[in-house]
Amino acid sequence: MTTAFVITLLSGLAMESRASSQVPAVQLNPGDIIYTDSGDAVNGGFVIKVDPNTQVQTVIASGGNLRMPFGVAIDSNGQIVVSDSGRLIHIDPQTHIQAIIADNSLGKLGSPYGIDIDFSGQVLAANAQALVRVDPSSGQTTVVSSGANFGAPLSVAVADNGELFVANVAFPGQIVRVNPQNGSQKVISSGQYLNSPRSITVQGNDIYVTDVINTNINYGLAGRVIHVDAHTGIQRVVSEDPASLDPSSGGYDGAIIRIDPSTGVQTPLARGQGSYINPRGVAVVPGATITAKH
Predict the structure, then answer these.
(1) What DSSP state is assigned to residue 80?
(2) Maximum CA extent, the chain
(3) What are 173-185's pLDDT values in tens digits?
(4) Cα 134 to the chain's mean position, in Å?
(5) How many other C-beta atoms can be found within 10 angstroms of the C-beta atom of residue 41?
(6) pLDDT in tens, 217-250
(7) How much of the chain is in helix, strand and coil states, percent to nearest 5?
(8) What is the DSSP string of 32-60?
(9) Backbone dihedral region of 109: left (phi > 0), alpha (psi from -120 to 50 degrees) or beta?
(10) Are 86 and 110 in contact (CB under 8 A)?
(11) 239-242-246 Cα angle (round to 5)
């Protein structure tokens, strides 16, 4: 496999937030990287686009409903969905308008972290207690799966066949396959390199998981990317420890890193600047035209 992927290195329902009409529309192109950043108390959270070729960063949205954004996903219409502080937020990159899809006022959404979008356009969210499904049109939230093996499910990925894979913080860490129809769970991989899995993506039979381990260096944490075979559960470490960031140029400020899944080679694509220094969630624009549908 030669396809590279990227990781982040941590360093009322009708409410809308409208951006100034003078702010230019942001065009999403295939391969563009979209990430969320926790921002700061003055500017709020950010959603940012990175051009993987030029490494130019463009702010798509900031402040407004964005307080502490975490997960991010892109739907088939090129619209952005973000999880943030017990809410799901829709963001139009063309108009910069933010709208709350659903919040936790009815208690089912919980505090969503990692998110993905299924084939029907429904938003799936792992909320550290359960896996829930949200209708982006109505905000209706239903529980897909809970209890059983779940300790603290933090992220979810939709496979090509519609099955769901969840990164579950348990003792030890686990990757759990969930049936989207009946919510049944099966642990396909546990322990070994899995310590505290944070995010997950799946392509065919290949599952990639970001994980952190406690250490007495690197601010107390070290990162790794783990490959898990979806059929056998066999694990291998793809890459470990963050790419080197020179402290003399501003110190630890977070980064977006491309990792070659075959070699584990890390290539920093963007690093924090100004008010956005703590990237949290990342998505890649699909490889077909995203102006309308892909």
Answers:
(1) E
(2) 53
(3) 999 999 999 999 9
(4) 16
(5) 7
(6) 555 567 889 999 999 999 999 998 755 455 554 4
(7) 5, 50, 50
(8) -EEEEEEEETTTEEEEEEE-TTT--EEEE
(9) alpha
(10) yes
(11) 140
Nearest CA-CA partner of 66 in 78, 79, 81, 77? 81
What global pTM score does this model have? 0.85
Nearest to 224 by CA among 235, 236, 210: 210
End-to-end CA gap in the chain = 23
Question: Any bridge partners for residue 134, and if so which?
Answer: 123, 141
Alpha carbons 61 and 78: distance in angstroms, whole number = 15
Q: Find tokens 């307080």 and name the residue.
A: 67
* Among candidate residues 207, 162, 201, the one with its CA nearest the CA of residue 180: 162
Tokens standing for residue 255: 């980064």
Give Cα separations from 119 to 114, 142, 180, 193, 272 (angstroms).
Answer: 17, 17, 11, 31, 33
Q: How far apart are CA 289 and CA 246, in angstroms?
A: 37
CATH architecture of residue range(s) 5-284: 6 Propeller (2.120)
In one-letter notation, the amino acid at residue 10 is L
How many CA atoms does the CB half-sphere of 252 hold within 13 Å?
Answer: 9
**DSSP character string of 124-192:** EEE-SSEEEEE-TTT--EEEEEESTT-SEEEEEEE-TTS-EEEEEE-SS-EEEEE-TTT--EEEEEEST
